[in-house]
Amino acid sequence: MQGFFQRYLLLYRPLTSKLNDLLKEYDLSYSLWQIIFYVKKKGPSTLVTISNYYHIEKPSITRSVHRLEKKELMEQIPGKNRREKIIQLTSKGEVVYQSCRERITRLENQVLKDIPEEELLAAFHFIPQIRDNLLQERGKNR
């Protein structure tokens, strides 16, 4: 289906901008939110696992985590060895997560209104498959 990626990219930019506006009140950006969301969803995590999940270079994740630590939203906990950095949400991070999650849910409901539930469910299932296909293709080209 030609034009699918173009349609997706036309959605991506305004959505990211809207999320950045929503998160600005908390002195966060969407890229910082992604880390908070991941750690909330998966639990205490290493920088490497977050980096691998989002396919972002580890130094970028490290810089973002330092910013979250300065905001007292993340903290380090001891790992198996001294070189392994494991992070988790602080109690302040939990409160900020919950508040942001509620606002993002309201935004989701607002922008997804009038779309039939079966179509939303289909997208909910096929979008991860597209990601998996892209990542498999990426692995073949290495």
From TrEMBL:
InterPro entries in the record = HTH_MarR-typ, WH-like_DNA-bd_sf, WH_DNA-bd_sf
Keywords, alphabetical: DNA-binding, Transcription, Transcription regulation
Which GO MF terms are attached to this record?
DNA binding
Boundaries of every HTH marR-type domain copy: 1-132
Classification via PANTHER family: TRANSCRIPTIONAL REGULATOR, MARR, TRANSCRIPTIONAL REPRESSOR OF EMRAB OPERON
Protein name (Swiss-Prot/TrEMBL): DNA-binding MarR family transcriptional regulator
Q: Which organism is it from?
A: Virgibacillus alimentarius
